[in-house]
Structure formats: structure tokens, C-alpha cells
Amino acid sequence: MKNFIQIAGVHDLEEAKMIATCGVSAIGFPLRLPSHEIQPEISEEQAKLVITHLSQDISCVLITYINRASEILALCKYLNVHWVQVHGDITTTELKLLKPSDSSIKIIKSLVVGRYSLKGLLSQVGSFTPFVDAFITDTYDPESGAYGATGKTHDWNVSRQIVRVSSRPVILAGGLNPSNVCEAIQFVRPSGVDVHSGVEGPNGRKDLKLVKKFVQEARRAFALTESNQFTD
User: Fold this and answer.
1) Counting CB atoms within 10 angstroms of each CB, which of 64, 103, 122, 144 has the fewest?
2) Which ranges of 54-201 does DSSP label H, i.e. alpha helix?
3) Residue 101 pLDDT > 90
4) What angle do CA 107, 127, 63 make, to 5 degrees?
């Protein structure tokens, strides 16, 4: 997952194809969200259609708060995706059931900064590592109770510490946009980044110029990291 760039949330095939032309690694499809979240931009039926027509060069990721392995696997099979971002609370027991059940399924587990202390998050890293392929750090919003898709940044020091101790790749999310993604990558040193609302225009749809700029800035930061042109 080196230099991984994910754009989350699409409305239709046209929007997905536009994003795909910008050189992203993956497109995320948020589905079956908790009640406090906004409604998904796309239905499960439409998502399946979009995924069917996207190039195999683009990874399609199911983003969901489902916490039962059987339901997750069923939705992955329906959508024909092999990556799932488990964003809600899930037990290690369910992750154990999810991982061995289908070896083709790759799991990204969320770590919600602000909802748990650094100590608690590092404990989760230790508990979940044997059963996941990557982690994604995201932001908790105490005002709404949302833990993901908040459009808000969190303390990057926490994500930085998680990156340092995790043996799994760590994706940074939460309030990223074309203006701050380069700085974020240079500070946190994640394996990848994820953006949702940070590349949307006033109409709520992904903006081509913003997506291109985000990808450009992310790749610039990854290149700087690899060439060691800056220090801690």
C-alpha cells in the first residue's frame, strides 16, 4: 500500500471514472452507515454497477460500519470487492471470522483519534494487527458523535505515533484537502492518505481540479519522504 491515495464517496459512474483518470489508487464506497452519518452518496445497487465498469487498475473499497463478519462478506461478494474498510466497532472474534473465511478479502481497520486515547489506540493496534492488512486513522467529532467523514483534522501527533509502532501500513484520513495533504504526509509519514469532502465542490460532488491537486500534492509529499529531503 505504498503511496496509497484513496478518494471516498461517489455519486455515479461518471464521477467515478473522472476520479479514476486522476491517478488514484482506490475509490471508497461508504455503505450501511450509522444513523448519525449522512446518507451514502450511492445505493448498493448503483455501487455494484459502478464497480463493474471501473478499470481493474483501480481498487474498489467497501467502507462500512457493519460489525458482523457474515454480513461484511455477503456485501463484499455482492459488490465484487476484495477490500473492506471496517470503520465501526468490531471485535477481534469477528475479525478472526472475516479474515480466514475468504483469503482474498483485505481488511483496513479504522482507528478513531479523539474517540480513544493514544494508549487505547495503540492497544487496538496490538489487538487487531494479526487480523488486518492496514489501519486508517480518522477523526472523532464530539459534537455530532460521528467517527469518520467529519471533514475535520485530528492531532497528527497521534497518527504519527501509530505509524511508528504499527507493523501494518497506516492510511491517514480526516479533514485532508489539497492545501494540507503535503504537510500531513511529511509530518505523519503514512503509507497512504484518504479524502472525502476535501475534494468536493459546493454541489457536494467531486471537483476535477481539486482531485488532481490533491493527488499532485500527495505524490509530491511521498516523493519528498522517499528522498529524505526533510528531517523530523
Assistant:
1) 103
2) 69-79, 92-101, 118-128, 156-165, 181-188
3) no
4) 25
Q: Give the E-state strand segments of the chain in sequence order.
A: 4-8, 26-31, 59-64, 83-86, 106-113, 134-141, 146-147, 170-172, 192-195
Selection from 87, 69, 77 nearest residue 31 by Cα: 87
User: What is the dihedral sign for C-alpha 167, 215, 39, 151?
Assistant: positive
Taking CA atoms, 157 is separated from 60, 113, 180, 184, 200, in Å, by 29, 10, 15, 10, 26
Indicate if the pLDDT at residue 102 is higher than 80: no
Residue 58 DSSP code: S
User: So what's the pLDDT on residue 34?
Assistant: 76
97-129: buried (b, 16+ CB within 10 Å) or exposed (e) per residue?
bbbeeeeebbbbbbbbbbbbeeeebbebbeebe
Helices (H) and strands (E) in the chain, counts: 8, 9
Question: Between residues 109 and 57, which one has the greater pLDDT?
Answer: 109
Rounded to whole angstroms, the Cα distance separating 104 from 77 reads: 11
For the cut 60, the answer to whether the pLDDT of residue 163 exceeds it is yes
Its pTM stands at: 0.93
